[in-house]
User: Fold these one by one.
Assistant:
Number 1:
Amino acid sequence: EKEKMKAKVEKIINFNCNCFINRQLIYNYPEELFANAGMMAIEHADFDGIERLASALGGEVVSQFDDPTGVKMGGCDLIDEVMIGEDTLIRFSGLKGGRACTIVLRGSSAQLLEEADRSLRDALCIVASTVRDSRVVFGAGCSEALMAAAVSKAATSLRTDEELKTA
């Protein structure tokens, strides 16, 4: 079993990358082999996160390690750990695949975080829609407020009830 694990790690090392990101647990022995080869190993990456990370890094997710040729490798300038409150996060800076950012939401309750998440998603959707089509219709009751102001302005120019009825 140990030899099978070593053979698989050697296949991964043959890709000549300096960081291996895995969706599953990496046991001590393979982690030691990676470290001896000068390769960082990150474990427990979530499925959706790894897909987004591969895109941001300009690479692709690889599930077979037999042939490193033709595999699009991603890259970044720096990988480091940052502490936010009591949580440790891994930060990728200087992405080669394009631009990406992470927004960390923190709050005192799950309900507050859910509301903040919904508000942030709404704001990002508005920005994306505006980028796709710059014709903007303002929301949050803006059109109703503009109509009310126009009606109010028109009402001040009328003098009698008869004029109001026919306007």
Note: The first strand starts at residue 19 and ends at 21.
Number 2:
Amino acid sequence: SKSHTDDNTPYIRYFVSFIVQFQFYEQMCTAANYTSSPQTPLYLCDFYNNTNAGNLLGNMLNLGASVPWQQAMKNMTGSTQMSAGSLLRYFLPLTTWLKAANKKNCDCYGWGVPYSAATIKKYGLPTPRCPAPGGKTWPKCKTAPTKSAGSVSASLLLSLTALAALFAR
């Protein structure tokens, strides 16, 4: 068991660290002169032995607790704001593949909870959504949407979409 409950350590720090680690990673890639594109996605960046990337991280770490973490983050990334943009760019190839696989397999996501067309458009939610029990098949699918292994990928896609919406600027 974890000691976090006993010593009153907030779990929010794990959430924050998960988001900002991708911001740090992307900035280190930029310092190493790596430019991501569809042909060279962000996850392929390698800044091993790159002096510029190492100095960028080292300078931030050298601050220690002498400044608030937001200032240390600004020194490294140029912003004090958390953003899911780097995380989304890192996982863009996976997201693209998930969307195509879900469409190809007629996989759906959700539990029959209806979202308005405006909400689906605003947050770019993938379709099709699973119908309520006893619902119809989807027009372009020969069978009813399944809750198969593909629906796990649909759930991951929905999670990434929701995370992006949460930190959208």
Note: The radius of gyration is 20 Å.
